[in-house]
Amino acid sequence: MTIRLFDRDVTALDFTATVLECIPRGDSYEVVLDQTAFFPEGGGQGADHGTLGGANVLDAQEKGGVIRHTTDAPLTVGSSVEGHVEPVRRLSMMQQHTGEHILSGLICRLHGYHNVGFHIGTEAVTLDFNGPLTEDQVRHVEQLANEFIWRDLPVEAWIPSPEELAALDYRSKKAIDGDVRIVRIPGADTCACCGTHVLTTGQVGQIKVIGVMKYKGGVRLSILCGMRALEAETRCWRRTEPSVRRCPPSRASWLPPPAGFCRSETSCA
Ligand SMILES: [Zn+2]
Questions:
Q1: Which of 78, 189, 218, 223 could form a disulfide with 130 if both were Cys (CB 3.0 to 4.6 A apart)?
Q2: Are residues 104 and 156 in the same domain?
Q3: Is the predicted pLDDT of residue 243 greater than 70, yes or no?
Q4: Claim to verify: residue 20 and residue 121 sit in the same structural domain
Q5: What is the pTM of this model?
């Protein structure tokens, strides 16, 4: 079993580990460590990338409790190596994943629908629910979800005792042998989950629903959270007519930016 350092502290991205296995696989290598901060692909969330010793980590997969890292260079079995998880990709994954919890928890509470599919794609994040939602209902839950972000609530994760677990009402309840890890966002969601999440809801930044479509008798939402939402807004901004981007004085007169808020090239003042 590989020790999962990300379960203890999602902010610990740099670590030292001992190489237990290194097996050539075509052009790459499959590396097993005694412990790792690399989150393996699972639960809709992609694997962490980064470096191990002098090698790049391209993927990480878990099977039977053992996490196998795909590297582009060999590592010496028995040696001690330094690992570094690439922080921007990890933060984005945590933002998308935690945003999913907030939205899914609220939709379950308000409408009784369950999240039956979740995938962090390269473009958008998709969430599938087993019941229909109108556009007004989607906009309402999007607004509520962002209000939970603004309240900057703690994202709690812990392994309850069997007695405590039996008394908990939570999503993703499955018959699992062994420990069940619970992730709770007070007022929004309680869910069994082994993924990585930000520490407070404020770190999600924002949640934006960018697509709603009927899907298998329910609905598929496409969303963007945090830095992905910001990047999408920047792309929209660049596509906007230059005359609009300049923010004419008539607009500025009713919506003055806070002092020091705008940079000179985009200033509305
Ligand atoms: Zn989760």
A1: 218
A2: yes
A3: no
A4: no
A5: 0.86
Judge whether 237 lies within some domain: no
Which pLDDT score, from 0 to 100, does residue 241 have? 64
Residues 77, 101, single domain; the answer is: no
Whole-number pLDDT of residue 255: 41
* Ligand 1 center from residue 42 Cα (angstroms): 10
Stretch 50-68: mean pLDDT, rounded?
A: 96
CA of 140 to the centre of ligand 1 (A): 23
Task: Tell me the CATH number at 50.
Answer: 2.40.30.130
Q: What is the pLDDT of residues 257-268, one digit of tens each?
A: 444 333 333 333
Any domain includes 257 = no
Residues 115, 151, single domain; the answer is yes
86: Cβ contacts below 8 Å, ≥ 6 apart: 48, 49, 50
pLDDT digits (tens, 9 = 90+) for 211-226: 999 999 999 999 999 9
- Centre of ligand 1 to C-alpha 265, Å, is 39
Ligand 1 mean position to 157 CA, how many Å?
9
Residues in the chain: 269
